[in-house]
Structures are given as C-alpha cells and as structure tokens.
Design a protein that fits this description.
Blueprint: E1 8-13, H1 16-24, E2 33-37, E3 44-45, E4 51-52, E5 54-55, E6 67-68, H2 70-73, H3 83-89, E7 94-97, H4 100-117, E8 121-123, E9 128-132, H5 140-155, E10 159-164, H6 167-173, E11 182-184, H7 190-194, H8 207-215, H9 221-225, H10 229-236, H11 238-248, E12 264-275, H12 281-302, E13 304-315, E14 320-331, H13 334-345, E15 354-366
Parallel strand pairs: 2-7, 10-11
Antiparallel strand pairs: 1-9, 1-10, 2-6, 3-4, 5-7, 8-9, 12-15, 13-14, 13-15
Helix pairs in contact: 1-4, 4-5, 10-11, 12-13
C-alpha cells in the first residue's frame, strides 16, 4: 500500500482584529490603526455624520497593543507592545478599542466556510487553523484559491495560506507572502525558501532558545540544519536537540487534530489602574462577579462542567499568586463558581493593590457525565 504524501495547509487571517474593525470603519483603510484602546475610546459621530477617532498620542495608561494594521506595523507598532511606547513611534495612528464579540463572530464565519470545502480542520485559535488537504481531489493551488475566495465572499476579509507536507513548514509558509498570499512548498524547496530564514520562524523556538542558538553562531535555519548533533545535545539536551535538527530539516509527523478537549476555561482582566482591595472593594466585587459569570457562560456554551475552581491575582509589584479548590461534583453554576472562587480569595493576602484578577475552571468533563448540584450560596464574600 502506497502512503499518500500529506498536504497540510495553515490558514492565517491577515491582521484579523484590525481587519474586522475596518469593515465597520472603512474610512480608516490604508491608515495606521492600532487595536487596544479602552471602551471609552469608541469613535464619536459628529453632527455632520463624520466619525471622530481617538489618536494614539492621546492615550495615557499602561495598556498593551492587541494588534495593528500593516501600515502601523511599518511604523514599528506590533502586538504585545506597550501602548505608551507605541504612541512615541506612531503618535498619529488611530486607536480603537477591542471588540472580542465581533472577532469571535467573524472567526466562526471563516471557519465554517473552510469546513464546507475541507472538513478536516484543527482549530488553533481565533484567527488560524490547520487543514488536512491530503485526501481531496483538487490540486493545492485550486483548493487554496477556493478557500480564500470563499472566506473573502463570506466575511470581506483576506487570509494567507501556506501548504506543505506538514504542519511545521505550513506554519512558516503562511507568513512568507502576507498579506493575502498563497505559498506552496515541497521538501525540495527547503534550501531556497526556508533555510535562509531566522531560526525564530520555527514554531517552538522561542526568544530564549533563539538567543542561546545565537551564542553558538546559529542564526538561520540553514545553519541549524548543519550543526553537529553533539553540540546541540550539550546545550539543549538530547530530546530538544533532536527536535531542533528535525525541524531544521522540515521533519514533522504531528497529525492534524480535528478535536481536542480543553484543559481549563478562564477569564481574566488587567485593570487600567491599580485597584485596592479595600478602597475599591465595590468595583472589584463587580468585576469578580462578572468574571465568574462569563466563565460559567463559556462552560455552558462549550458544553462542559468543571470541578476545580481557581483564582489568579497579580499585585502592583507584579507578584502573581494563584489558589484553587476542588468540588465533589463538577458544575457550570455561576453562583457556585462565585462562591468557591471567593473562598479561594480568602486564602490570599489582600493587602496590596491589584493590577490583574482572573477566574479559572479546570478538571473539565462533558455535561452528560455529571449533574451540577447546589452547594449553597455565600452572602458575604471577600470581594
């Protein structure tokens, strides 16, 4: 029996959050736009029907950029950058608040389009998926064009697609011809297209490994491909060294996983300003209750119950603490989640200001596997 050569695609939506917002605000197309403002920085409609947008130079706070348009990226503004730092680089860039409800809506739309063409999909997040094209009759270029055209017709958005024999290479490929690109790679193309790239382009080589490889004189994937295995083993250990060499040679047998069970469901929020557990008790209590309600709603929507409930706090000095507690029977009841999370809070010193608060439910199981029970309602909570 002859084994088919795999055809794996990686689809990555182009500047997804920003592109979704530009559907609503087409007058900003072609402009540097940054997503990451507060809700209060929604566009304002003037009397003449034109919209007024916040500018990055007017932002004051310690927020982080969620994403940016390609025009803003050309000015040095990227996701994960502090908003105040971004304001120095691109003060005239337009600033929009995040709208996760809209992003999730368009995420569902584009994935549904792809599923109708190629149903073997691995969901990797709100804006990217892997697709197994191996058993489909059309050639790779035809399939890529069909998928891209379908996504654009249904959503008005563009995506970039990389196709290769495996997930590792396809992930790299989808980024080579952005935006709105198609890149098809065979193993014979490795020396010309992949080896000249930085090692950090390989998914799984993070900043620390990149820096460590640089000390060995390894900056490109090609340099990594020809290094002596013993050198890598000495600095990275046997297992990771072998993975590094395989990755550099484009070797990856990981399957496209069409279904996976989440390990936990969580919600957290970073405050615009530090909040004090006593002086800001009312505001914190409302935020805490909302987080518990949102986690409970996420559980219901995904069809899960959870038995372990935990909290996460980050103080103003960046110290992070977590606590959790397990129930005898799993639940998706927001009152129970609020109660147990509150009990977890009682085990944490609430003497310093807080910059982050989060709630997590883990030890998940399907709804049909258990029945939530009422374990009582607590009337007084620490927040």
């Amino acid at each position: 029996m002859v084994q088919l050569l795999r055809r794996i695609a990686h689809l990555d939506m182009d500047a997804f959050y920003a592109s979704v917002d530009l559907l609503r605000y087409p007058e900003l197309r072609g402009q540097p736009v940054v997503i990451g403002g507060r809700r209060s920085q929604q566009p304002v409609m003037d009397a003449d029907g034109t919209r007024r947008f916040a500018r990055l130079r007017d932002y004051v706070g310690r927020g982080v950029i969620t994403t940016s348009t390609y025009e803003a990226r050309a000015l040095g503004v990227f996701s994960g950058m502090g908003t105040m730092k971004a304001a120095k680089l691109a003060p005239d860039a337009f600033l929009l608040p995040v709208d996760f409800d809209a992003y999730r809506h368009y995420s569902r739309l584009f994935k549904a389009v792809v599923a109708r063409i190629a149903p073997e999909i691995e969901d990797r997040g709100i804006d990217e998926i892997y697709i197994d094209l191996t058993h489909l009759p059309e050639d790779s270029l035809t399939l890529a064009r069909r998928i891209k055209d379908g996504v654009r017709k249904e959503t008005g958005l563009s995506c970039s697609i990389g196709i290769s024999p495996n997930k590792l290479l396809s992930k790299i490929c989808s980024d080579l011809d952005k935006p709105d690109g198609i890149t098809i790679l065979t193993m014979e193309d490795l020396p010309g297209r992949i080896w000249p790239l930085s090692v950090k382009k390989i998914n799984g080589i993070g900043p620390k490994a990149t820096a460590k490889l640089a000390t060995l004189g390894i900056d490109t994937i090609g340099q990594l491909a020809v290094i002596e295995p013993e050198v890598l083993q000495e600095h990275f250990g046997l297992s990771y060294a072998q993975w590094l060499l395989n990755a550099a040679h484009g070797v990856d047998a990981s399957p496209v996983t069409t279904h996976s069970e989440p390990k936990s469901i969580s919600r957290e929020t970073t405050f615009e300003k530090d909040l004090h557990p006593r002086h800001d008790r009312t505001a914190l209590s409302e935020i805490f209750t909302e987080l518990c309600s949102r986690v409970a709603n996420d559980l219901k929507q995904k069809g899960y119950l959870g038995r372990t409930i935990g909290i996460k706090l980050r103080y103003d000095d960046f110290q992070t603490v977590t606590r959790d507690s397990s129930l005898p029977i799993a639940t998706d009841n927001p009152t129970i989640i609020r109660r147990v999370a509150g009990e977890c809070l009682r085990r944490v010193p609430l003497v310093k200001k807080l910059r982050l608060l989060g709630v997590r439910v883990s030890a998940l199981q399907g709804v049909g596997d258990s029945v939530p029970v009422d374990i009582g309602v607590q009337t007084e909570l620490p927040l």
